[in-house]
Amino acid sequence: MTYVRTIEHADIVHRCFRCGYCKFPSDYVDFNCPSYKAFGWDTYSPGGRMWLIRAWLNDEIKSSPHFAEILYSCVACDNCKTQCVFPKFKDFIPDIFQEAKAELVNEGRIPPEVRDYFKAIAVNGNPYKLPQSERGKWAEGTGLQPYVNQEYLFYAGCVGSYDEVGQKMARSVGKLLVDAGVSVGILGSEEACDGSEVKILGEMGLFTKLAQENIEQFKGKGVKKIITLDPHALNAFKKDYPKLGGKFKVFHYTEILAGLIKNKKIILSAYPMKITYHDPCYLGRHNQIYGPPREILKAIPGVEFLEMHRNSLNAFCCGGGGGNFFTDILGTGEDSAGRVRIREAMETGARIIAVACPTCAKMLSDAVKAEGLEDKLEILGIAEIMERARTK
Amino acid sequence: MRDILKALVEIVGERGVSNTPEELWFYSRDPGVLTPHLPDYVVAPRTTEEVQKIVLLANREKIPVVPMGNGMSLTGLVIPLKGGIVLDMKRMNKILEVNAMARYAVVEGGTSQGVLKAYLQEHHPQLRHSIPDAPPTTTIAANAALHGQGRLTQQYGFNSEMVTGLEVVLPTGEICLIGSPSLGPYWFSRGPTMPDLSALFLGWLGTTGIITKIGMRLYPNKKIRDVELFVTDRVDLIPHILYKLTHLEILEDVNVWFQPKPLVFKGNYHITLYFTGDTEEEITFKRRMIWDTLQEYMDSKDGGFMSVQYMKDMLMEMPQRGIADFADVPKGGGFEYSGPITIIEHFPQYAAKVVELAAKYDVLYASSARLISGGHCMMFSISFAFNRNDPAMMTRVKHALDEATAFALEMGGIPWKPNFMEQKMTMEKMDPNALKLLQMIKKNLDPQGIMNPGNWEVNP
After folding, report:
1. I need a surface site. Which of B104, B150, B255, B356 has the fewest CB within 10 A?
2. Which domain holds residue A50?
3. CA-CA distance, A210 to A357, in Å (whole number)?
4. Of all helices (H) and strands (E), which one includes residue B224?
5. Does residue A115 fall inside a structural domain?
6. ipTM > 0.90 (yes/no)
7. A-chain residues within 8 Å CB-CB of B334?
């Protein structure tokens, strides 16, 4: 059967010159595209993907597991969009990759790991296949109350709710918000997956369903303002939900915590430590939130804040975006993004990598182990570091 | 075939070789207008020894080997015209040494221009290399191997003239050190005072061996860099202006460009003049010298200096990111250029030819000439943009470029990084004994004819 493929931005795909600026950060110090860095073939670079998608749309190459791996190894970090030298179409490059994945979903030619992810979300409501009733357990002991018309909803997301590393981050944020007297509640076992990774992996039907159900629930409970733990959720709530009628004021937790420090609602004591900060792609490049996490770290007395060479707009991804956190298509080899990033952090002399995303926290924690640096480097959420500064 | 794949996997590991349709499709083409041709394998070595083993295997099995950097020559030099192995060198990307006092760097054969630039900026800010305006992914070795140019070419010659030593895997598999590294640990001279063997590999477009390490001269990186833009509508004056400017011996780089779009540039010839200094006094002095030299053209109202403020950031970029943007002018993702090397007094004829060809073939042009070695010659780029979704336009661009090359040869110029057809045109015009010498060298170095076959082939 001949399958006629089409994607929304098909009329742009041929305009890529494959010049390769998209592989680099702005100073060209090293390759900044995680999948190209890990696999080393030009086909795994943004330009390579653009050219292959065009060939695939023109039926010059077929759908195949290898083609799917090339598409699904993209971490959606937006470095290509940032560095591309073609202003008239650069903004659509990540959309094209996402649309091609959606077309693969329509064809049913997706990698097994992606299929399993969709299945877990559809059946269990989370990628960990854990009961919905356990979703709010992370909040025990934090003082967080169920959401009932408070000013803010604190949304933990799947990683914050079920993953051990994510749970620690969520608990720290929750405690700080409660202690600072913020009017905030959680959905607990009523919280559902935000669908961000479902969308980036190309299952548009499932994403729309999840988003619509969330919007309905948020509206039903009178939610106006949302604080997210996970920048991926922040991105979905800010950019995708409004298109489906869900308009909320959305904040990342670091924005709220930075404000609380500024307004002296949180007082920090000395914590002498060398700390570097890893920008999450969905907080930084996707949403241009670079300042608040740094303001918090710099506000802690005794902290020596050290930037990695690639930071802010040029930060190198942890490798967990684009659903790779769950599908692991990028792999864990020496050139995998997380391990490269850990080596870069080590060059700063820092003892802690501060993170602002549970996905980054988990990816980098695993990478520290893979590099055998557990005794030299610690991965901590911004709120976890703040907690240390409050108890010392 | 299966045995060859197995042998390649044994050499470079499973992640270093591919024969999947996706990689074969991608590595069968470059961004220019030439017809693609599928390789049989794509191989990405990490060490010189792996390159050697691949070449020995290729020799034994008589498999073509096409070394590739970033594949941005645009003239199909990495298209495997006879199949075989495309050797993607970009995983050999280490900076091995910078000798700051002797001002040279030694890098592996797949190291990119961008990575060396960033490394020098961070570790040796007093030094720079002659970075081309090609994208930063392009490799240093490939640029030298095709006699590329860069930001310091006006002062110091072709980038290939800046080579200070080579490590090459010969087509028969020997690893050969060229120049001072063949005698000792220092990479300061590619040949002199011995016979210059580097010439056996530079300009040969990968047909005589694979460069696995390359030494390149570095130059002082002055604290201040500035630019002036002189504009005239009299093309006949350009050679004289360039002659006068190069007499100053103070200019870092000189480019002359003209293009019909955007309209603000139409009808004028723009001379971009870069100069450097360590103090404001030095910069002011050099600016004064430039202005004084061109005063007569301002007095006669034949030209003047144009304010660069609104485009200064773009002009000062190294490499200039905006150059690639030409590919999107017809909303189509492509451009290709013929860049003959010629004498500066022929500028007016070449300029007329560009406009004539663009009109004849109904394509969009942009042209930029870069001075080489203080004006001894220039690279005159005749660039035509095309829409990759418009095969007819691509054919017109190809015909326009063929005609541009024929014109350059008629004018006594030399095609730069010629495609295989342009190489044939060049060899047909070449002195017969020079051609015989070329053939003799090629045959002796590559008896099986495995290196980038179809290129510099006297009897294909």
Report:
1. B356
2. 13-110
3. 21
4. strand B224-232
5. no
6. yes
7. 17
